[in-house]
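Running log. JK asked me to keep both predictions on one page so they can be read side by side. First protein, sequence followed by its tokens:
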Amino acid sequence: MKILLIEDELAIAKIISSALKYERITVDIARCGNAGLRMAVANKYDLIILDYKLPDKNGDEICLQLRNASFDLPIIVLSAINDYENKVKLLDVGADDYITKPFELAELFARIKAALRKQRIEFGTILSYDDLRLDLKRHSVERQGNKIRLRDKEIKILEYMMRHAEQVLTREMILSYAWGPNTERFTNVVDVHVHNLRDKVDKPFGIHTIQTVNNIGYKLSR
């Protein structure tokens, strides 16, 4: 499991991170909202823990930006503000849960488990876009009822595009998601795989859903 912790207070971030790592959970830390947004886009996380009050953005802004970009992973907000209206506002813009500081780590762990259980029920492993269907569990792709054989990296790229349909994805973002953030590969490998992917899922059906955005990258769009 991999969690993104967006928290500017280093002492709190270290306590939470150490406790999660003890439970064999991988944790990435972002110290401000903009860094957190960049990391959320570039990496695949199972859940985000988000401090409400950050130096550059408030938690409601970050939640809204993530949801508007079609991020469906659970978001748990941490805040020293124990205010009913603030809780309602955050839940309305996309937070899944809200924990008031100070809190016990046992409570945080329980909230994480509950959010992930809910995510598994709601999110599932089947993605759809128009007549394109990707079953991640079965590792299968279909379009117009026809099965399409894809390589592992092609499925990874297609998954990323389908999760962020209508959103422009840079070559660097796709590279980081499909090969990992520390890959030493060049971005032209993305062009090769997207070209092959387009030949398999678009061209045989006379469809152009995988679109090139000049000098930037690609997007899945009607």
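And the second, directly underneath as requested:
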Amino acid sequence: MQKLLIVDSHCLFADGVRFLIEYSTDHTVVGVLHTGREVIPFLLQHDIDVLLLDIDLPDMSGLELTRTIRTFYPATNVLALTTLTNPQSVNLAIEAGAMGYCPKQAGRNELFAAIRAVGTGHLYLPPSLVQQLRKPAAEKITQDLTDRETEVIQLIVDGHTTKTIADKLFLSTRTVETHRKNIYRKLRIHTNIELARYAQVNKII
């Protein structure tokens, strides 16, 4: 059972999501907030597993809030909720530290799948966005990756930082960064969202 916080400026939408979660899952919605400025004080008082965050908040940048949460509350995984489904918006959210991206147009089963994935520390992208982001070149380049590079990909996509990857694999941070650069070069990609797409397409995650 996960403890959830919903942050969305649209009251009806937020209440609807809360009802769906509480009626159809065993998760607990600890609170519903409607502004970004309420989030940090709330997190000081409550342990939250998954934060469903509208990244288009009117009072502050949802992306900046995501970065703050990622830095100071690493145990809280952010699931970005938005009406935006273009690749640039997805990339910005993931690069800011969100562990998942779920369009508000999604059905409830897709929302529940996103919550399950993010709640267990796995990056989630909906299938529709994976198809939209797919590049044939990235699908075919597998034979050049070493076993170690594949391990690094799995950990990056799971949301680990360079330091935690280094600790888990008993490597220096410089070595991890070298692996990351080599992976990006071999796959001809430039961002973690492209890496996540590659990992999903090739069933690395």
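Observation for JK regarding the second prediction: The domain at 3-126 is CATH 3.40.50.2300 (Rossmann fold).
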